Amino acid sequence: MKEILLNDGRKLPIVGFGTYKAKEQDGVDAVATAIKNGYTLIDTASIYGNEEAVGKGIKKSGIDREELFITTKLWRECLSYEETKIELEKSLERLAVDYIDLYLIHWPANAKNYDNWQQANADSWRAMEELQAEGKIKSIGVSNFFQEHLEALLKTAKVTPSVNQIEFHPGYWQQELTEYCQKQNIVIEAWSPLGKAVVFDNEVLTSIATKHNKSVAQVCLRWVIQHNVIAIPKSTTPKRIIENLEIFDFELTEDEMSSIDALPKMGFSGEMPNSWPDRVK
Amino acid sequence: MGIEKDFIKREFEKLSLFLTGLIDTTKVTEPNEGQKTIDKVNDALKEVFKLSLHEISTSNDHEFITKLSTYDEVHLEKLATLLYEIIQNPDFTMLGQDFEKNSLSKKAIVLLNYIDSISTTFSINRMQIKNELKAL
Q: Helical H runs in A37-162?
């Protein structure tokens, strides 16, 4: 599978397996199925409440831990130096691993929830830099950071985030933020790459899918990776888990890419870094 | 078998280090030392790739890629970086006798496209270098 080079020299596969809502035995089975079918990048988060299940799924797969890239995330209500270190230990324990490949700040601290959001993000980041130096985390990054959060973080950061995981799908792909991150050599990962399936009935996407004899989901994922963005689709259905990887035998033309780029806003989650916990329309 | 593998690995790393050193040389050129650095780069390129800067900038694309196709992607990536460093440094490009900036720039893009075609790894850095060269 194609990989993307991070700014710290490590590489990540261009398609990963998202585990949001994959809990308990379903989560264990989904992760094991995904790994057995070729996924090596497994994405979870402490807030998903499934790190234990993910850890068990990894064991069940029988694949060496060293072959895998495990991502987990620090929850937005734990943004301080001390809490970051405590939370990482908890994640390591729940996942039953001794290092994390990629650790992300899940959402930036914002003015609505933190007296000094810049400091909160900077303190957590400093803890993550130390944990990286200790070898407990291989790569460090952020999620849902806007340019303003990144610029503030970069004022004190010793290590530039390797990744920014953001909402990215046809109908909502944050083009300016993506371009800003790529200029900073920060790789974009796409959460919700299928736009909550809202995009599945879109005529542009269905016609492109028909032309390539692929599903709309596969077209969405292909569009994501052709933007050199890592796609992290989630599913607990074995058929879809496998289908989501079958995107390397076709290519979207420039016109098709442009027409998907230009789709009107749809499938937006309503989650914004400066508004949480509220959603916006 | 093990000894042979170790030897190949050592040679691989030796070339990587050599090219990295060459790139570093182009980054810290003393005033009026531009020609000296270019001479050093030319000697090194002739020794390693059997190509001078002049030959790179004047060869046709197919010949250029054919000559380089036996080299590892890692080393080609370093060669592309080296060419980029030379192209975007006015200390070198104003010399204008060993190569023509635009031709060398086009050849660096050809090389980067070739690396893209053989590599299974996407690199933002590679993309940025290519974009900068295209904008020259």
A: 51-61, 81-95, 117-134, 147-154
Q: Which residue has the higher pLDDT, B23 or B32?
A: B23
- Tell me how far apart the alpha carbons of residues B118 and B106 are, in angstroms, rounded to a whole number: 19
A48 is catalytic: yes
Chain A residues 214-253 with a CB less than 8 Å from chain B: 228
Q: How far apart are CA A194 and CA B101, in angstroms?
A: 45
Can you tell me which residue has the tokens 């194609």?
A2
Element (H, E) at A17: strand A17-18
- Helix, strand, coil fractions of chain A, as percent rounded to 5: 45, 15, 40
**Residue A189 domain flag:** yes
ipTM exceeding 0.90, yes/no: no
Query: What is this structure's pTM?
Result: 0.85
Residue A275 counted as domain residue: no
pLDDT of residue B27: 83
Residue A137, domain extent? 3-261
How many angstroms separate the CA atoms of A90 and A46, rounded?
A: 9
Number of domains into which chain A is organized: 1
| CATH assignment of the domain containing A201 | 3.20.20.100
Chain B residues lying within 8 Å of A1, measured CB to CB: 120
Alpha carbon distance A228, A225 (integer Å): 5
Residue ranges covered by each domain of chain B = 2-135
pLDDT digits (tens, 9 = 90+) for A52-61: 999 999 999 9
In this complex, is the C-beta atom of A12 within 8 Å of any C-beta atom belonging to chain B? no
Would you say residue A266 lies in a domain? no
Among candidate residues A174, A99, A87, A169, the one with its CA nearest the CA of residue A138: A99
Backbone φ, ψ for residue B15 (5° rounding) = -65, -40
Q: How many CB pairs under 8 A join A and B?
A: 32
Q: Is A187 an interface residue toward B (CB < 8 Å)?
A: yes
Choose, from A20, A39, A48, A81, the residue flagged as catalytic: A48
